[in-house]
């Protein structure tokens, strides 16, 4: 195979790292959403994580989801509306696990690739973690506007990888 042919089939770095995030997400046992995250500095992979119950504790497949409902006021067409949000509180999010299992020094100036746009809590944690960029694939509309504003305020590059196709066998249809 010549060099031009090799370069034509070689994945770009964004696709490569997002593929890894999706493969990591296959470790999740959450029936609602499999999320994977990877920490990258330059082109070096520094850590991976997925969403799930704390180690040694029954997960959602074993004990069921622990759903918490919240009401949030949102402006829709200039009018305030109450929006109901459901979240599983049994699960530690992939981004949270990534921060728990990586060192602050490694996060300084790094990029996080995550299968799903971070929720508000994860965005807050990432904003304070030393990272400079977040690349995600699937949108998370429940918190999107707030998260985008936060990233702009912090000067963190925040971008959706689109178009993108997850690796075969690694993609889960999301339950909302």
UniProtKB/TrEMBL annotation:
UniProt xrefs under CDD domains: deoxycytidylate_deaminase (cd01286)
Keyword Metal-binding attached: yes
Binding site for Zn(2+): 93, 119, 122
Record keywords, A-Z: Hydrolase, Metal-binding, Zinc
Any matching Pfam family: dCMP_cyt_deam_1
Annotated GO MF terms: dCMP deaminase activity; zinc ion binding
Xref: InterPro entries: APOBEC/CMP_deaminase_Zn-bd, CMP_dCMP_dom, Cytidine_deaminase-like, dCMP_deaminase, dCMP_deaminase-rel, Deoxycytidylate_deaminase_dom
GO BP, sorted A to Z: pyrimidine nucleotide metabolic process
Coiled coil (residue ranges): none
GO CC terms, sorted: cytoplasm
Cofactor dependence: Zn(2+)
Similarity comment text for this entry: Belongs to the cytidine and deoxycytidylate deaminase family.
Name of this protein: dCMP deaminase family protein
Origin species: Paenibacillus arenilitoris
């Amino acid at each position: 195979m010549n060099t031009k042919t090799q370069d034509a089939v070689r994945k770009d770095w964004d696709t490569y790292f997002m593929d890894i995030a999706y493969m990591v997400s296959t470790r999740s046992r959450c029936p609602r959403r499999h999320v994977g995250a990877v920490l990258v500095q330059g082109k070096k992979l520094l850590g991976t994580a997925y969403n799930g119950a704390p180690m040694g504790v029954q997960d959602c497949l074993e004990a069921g989801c622990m759903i918490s409902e919240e009401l949030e006021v949102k402006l829709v067409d200039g009018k305030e509306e109450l929006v109901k949000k459901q979240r599983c509180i049994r699960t530690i999010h992939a981004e949270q696990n990534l921060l728990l299992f990586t060192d602050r020094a490694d996060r300084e100036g790094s990029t996080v690739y995550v299968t799903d746009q971070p929720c508000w809590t994860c965005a807050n944690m990432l904003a304070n973690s030393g990272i400079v960029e977040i690349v995600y694939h699937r949108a998370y509309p429940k918190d999107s506007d707030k998260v985008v504003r936060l990233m702009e305020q912090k000067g963190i590059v925040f971008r959706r990888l689109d178009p993108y196709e997850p690796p075969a066998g690694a993609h889960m249809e999301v339950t909302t």
